[in-house]
Design a protein that fits this description.
By secondary structure, this protein is mostly helical. It contains three helices and no strands. It has one domain. α2 runs antiparallel to α3. It starts with a helix and ends with a helix.
Length: about 80
């Protein structure tokens, strides 16, 4: 879709949604933390050619926390848009 077409469509049919900036910053902060931690573990794994069970558990925990935070954020956006799912 061309930019002009999209702008026209949104002007006529789009919705303005106010999203809590704290949720956005929480999501970005969580993503940054996970990224930094994953980089540290991957660096150590590359150097030692080994990953510990503890590191694997940490990765899974961070993945779950990030998933929870992102789902809450998306749920808020869906609710603001009036989406059912």
């Amino acid at each position: 879709m061309k930019t002009a077409t999209y702008i026209k469509y949104m002007a006529l049919h789009g919705k303005i949604v106010n999203v809590d900036a704290k949720m956005s910053s929480d999501l970005l902060a969580a993503l940054g933390r996970v990224g930094n931690n994953v980089n540290q573990i991957s660096h150590r794994a590359n150097v030692t050619e080994y990953i510990t069970q503890e590191d694997l558990q940490k990765l899974l925990k961070w993945r779950d926390e990030l998933r929870h935070t992102s789902r809450a954020y998306l749920s808020t956006i869906h609710s603001a848009l009036g989406c059912s799912t």
